[in-house]
Design a protein that fits this description.
426 residues; mainly beta; Neuraminidase; 1 helix; 42 strands; flat
């Protein structure tokens, strides 16, 4: 088997072994009966499932965990809060936009809306709305009513001008930012206060204290800024940036004079912390909560996965690095001229079957297993040996997730117009 970034996966299942796993650990539960045609469906990153159905001709409803909305002319896929307790979406009724959520509904006097998002504390909802060509950053808050039920309240909105890319919201939801095009330059605007002009800007996001971090270019130099204060040295290029959802750690790649560094920013250190120098640095990954980062690197024709100051051997066609949801494992898929393998915290586990390094998969940390879908079913396999197990076959299936609250792998499967939650408990 040669080196390739597109490797065909072949799966052979022995029926008796499959039946044993199904009876012991796999379960299929019908969550939608098929009374209405299913238009789209999916899972969030916590414990929720959703579906949009066509109740009547060109009339749609949203179903979240079995709870149904009214019928609308248009229904957008929902966005879920980080804690999984709330959802929000846009819908059109009688040619007017509405903001729908399980915390209440609001009629919107905009002719176009986009970019729904929650704050990290799950209490603030923001979006971009347009009245004719005039744009606004809009902020709602979820409050608890005296009757015990939540409700939505409009907090404020700020005008936007020539916005480029997505908008940003701080962890507490009290600050909103966007990048604006200003002639040949760009600027950062936070809560309607515009900053200085740069030739180019790559946004990172909000720090936990409300400051906005970004990479700014002036002439041939790139620098990391905290609001308008430079907090790093200058580089020829900053191709990748990252910040965690809590705004407590950030990282970036800085390239200079034919080489590059991985660089970490946190409150633990007064100045940014640099890695050793490499010929090339790419595929940046940041720990979900701690000041820990990783990246891929090349030095003297050798490739590495770098975790802090520790190097692990890698190949040229490695998959992207990522941390598990709890940050306990750094994982990537790789293939050499002999085998494909899973690398977990620097430890190699050969895979007996060929596997695309770009395939989407889920990992239950500490179990030495991972889950993926074949297009027909949910599959769980162990890092070691040839143990590969699968659930029942379906017509279609969603990408997999590891539901850490229920401690099981899950995917939504569709047979005709029925939806099934396929799960594997370890």
């Amino acid at each position: 088997m040669g080196n390739t970034t597109s490797i065909i996966f072949v799966l052979l299942l022995i029926p008796t072994a499959l039946q044993h796993m199904q009876s012991q650990q796999f379960k299929e539960r019908e969550v939608l009966s098929g009374a209405e045609p299913v238009v789209s469906y999916g899972l969030d990153s916590t414990d929720n499932w959703w579906a949009i159905t066509e109740a009547f001709t060109e009339r749609f409803r949203l179903i979240v965990n079995g709870d149904e909305t009214d019928v609308f002319q248009f229904m957008q896929e929902p966005v879920f809060s980080p804690d999984g307790l709330y959802w929000v979406t846009f819908a059109i009724n009688e040619n007017s936009w509405e903001l729908l959520s399980n915390a209440g509904d609001e009629f919107l006097l905009y002719n176009r809306v986009e970019e729904l998002q929650f704050s990290q504390d799950s209490r603030i909802i923001t979006f971009v709305g347009f009245e004719a060509e005039e744009g606004w950053l809009v902020r709602y808050v979820i409050k608890d009513g005296d009757d015990g039920y939540p409700f939505l309240t409009l907090l404020e909105r700020f005008p936007i001008s020539a916005k480029v890319g997505k908008s940003f919201i701080s962890q507490r939801g009290d600050r909103m930012a966007y990048i604006g095009q200003r002639g040949s330059g760009k600027s950062v605007t936070v809560n309607n206060k515009e900053g200085p002009l740069y030739d180019e800007i790559v946004p990172m996001g909000f720090w936990h204290d409300g400051a906005f971090l970004f990479a700014g270019q002036l002439g041939n130099s790139w620098t990391i800024y905290r609001d308008d204060e430079a907090i790093s040295a200058s580089f020829e290029n900053i191709p990748e940036v990252a910040i965690n959802e809590y705004g407590t750690a950030a990282a970036f790649i800085g390239m200079y004079e034919g080489g590059g560094y991985g660089i970490l920013i946190s409150d633990q250190d007064e100045d940014p912390v640099y890695s050793r120098r490499y010929d090339n640095v790419f595929n940046l990954a940041l720990h979900p909560s701690e000041a820990v980062y990783a990246f891929k690197a090349k030095r003297f024709n050798a490739f590495f996965a770098v975790l802090g100051n520790v190097q692990y051997s890698a190949e040229n066609n490695s998959g992207k690095l990522f941390f598990t949801y709890d940050g306990s494992e750094l994982i990537f898929l790789d293939c050499d001229i002999v085998n494909c393998y899973m690398n977990v915290n620097g430890k190699r586990f050969d895979l007996s079957a060929d596997f695309s390094v770009d395939k989407k998969f889920a990992v239950a940390p500490g179990t030495e297993t991972f889950g993926f879908v074949t297009g027909l079913t949910l599959v769980v396999r162990k890092y070691k040996g040839n143990e590969i197990y699968a659930g029942s076959l379906v017509d279609e299936i969603s990408p997999p997730r590891y539901n850490w609250r229920q401690q099981r792998y899950e995917a939504l499967g569709k047979i005709n117009q029925r939806l099934y939650m396929i799960s594997c408990t370890l």
